[in-house]
Design goal:
SH3 type barrels, 8-stranded mixed sheet
């Protein structure tokens, strides 16, 4: 039986058991290490071996004594500070940390930092530090033009080493020479080179009603991820283009691992990574969805990176079903 012939009921039956591991809503009861890690980050796709779950605070965030906004706060996470994520609570919508609990939406799951090998020549790189400043020229005292956070993907055009021996990259949002340039510390980036998964007959199922995305190889479930999207009309789609990163005319403008789809009626649909929120598993509200000229499905950075590697390797062979 091919996957495209699976009924919706069969699809839900196949994915619901695995969905428990994603923390929506009963992941707090999960004890297996792999499922627990998938629950913490909202996906089982693109999880590196030996993943240690740490989180970056989006803004100043209270640490509550219990998983409730009415509980007293014990301390605060400062913006861009990083802390180990010890588990889930509150039906999966809270992270347990050393001194208490923080709302899941307040923290971006990221990888612990490991110093990368420098890039040789030009090419795409991804942010692996919690955050970095983009400066006007390659010096720590240079004016700050902007900032990037974990998961951002940019293009390196040049490199220079300053008087202190620090290597800097000249980066922009794309290869286009019209892009705005800036300088950032090279040690905060690694080459963007997702390893493509070895699949033969990949099918991507997008279920915007349950806020899930599942990937199959034939009828074998490969993995599942929570998504953040508006309700979508059921049907199919084909891949038009894909980009390591692309800018759009709305904030935030830089979108990593962008995959552009087309529906049978010609309507566009876009998949991309999101590193500015952690609302995966929730439905995008009408006000936010209305800001986009066409529907966007936002994915955890790990999911988006993994999916880009798959699309880059076998774009023409991927079947896409929307439920």
């Amino acid at each position: 039986m091919t996957l495209s012939k699976l009924s919706r009921r069969q699809f839900l039956k196949r994915t619901s058991a695995f969905g428990i591991a994603l923390g929506f809503p009963v992941a707090a009861k999960t004890t297996e290490i792999e499922r627990g890690t998938a629950a913490l980050i909202g996906t089982s796709l693109g999880m590196p071996d030996g993943f240690e779950a740490v989180g970056r605070a989006f803004s100043r965030t209270p640490v509550f004594a219990s998983p409730s906004l009415e509980a007293p706060s014990r301390s605060f996470f400062q913006p861009d500070s990083v802390y180990p994520l010890e588990g889930l609570a509150g039906d999966g919508w809270w992270y347990q940390v050393e001194n208490g609990y923080v709302p899941r939406e307040a923290v971006q799951p990221i990888l612990p930092y490991h110093r990368p090998a420098p890039l040789e020549g030009e090419g795409w790189v991804e942010m692996i530090a919690p955050f970095t400043a983009v400066r006007e020229y390659c010096a720590g005292s240079a004016p700050i033009m902007g900032r990037l956070v974990f998961g951002a993907v940019v293009y390196v055009h040049d490199r220079l080493r300053d008087d202190f021996g620090i290597l800097w990259y000249m980066v922009s949002a794309g290869k286009d020479s019209n892009s705005h340039y800036g300088w950032a510390t090279a040690a905060h980036f690694r080459a963007f080179a997702p390893t493509p998964p070895a699949l033969q007959h990949p099918t991507l199922w997008i279920d915007s009603h349950r806020m899930r995305m599942a990937v199959y190889d034939g009828d074998k479930l490969i993995g599942e991820s929570a998504i953040y999207a508006p309700p979508l009309l059921p049907g199919s789609a084909v891949i038009q283009t894909h980009h390591p990163a692309k800018t759009i005319r709305m904030s935030p403008s830089l979108r990593p691992s962008m995959i552009e789809l087309k529906r049978p009626n010609g309507a566009p649909l876009t998949l991309c990574g999101a590193n500015w929120h952690n609302r995966f598993g929730q439905e995008m509200d009408a006000t936010e969805a209305g800001r986009y000229p066409s529907p966007f499905v936002e994915l955890p950075i790990f999911t988006a990176r993994w999916l880009y590697g798959l699309v880059n390797a076998m774009r023409q062979k991927i079947e896409i079903v929307i439920e």
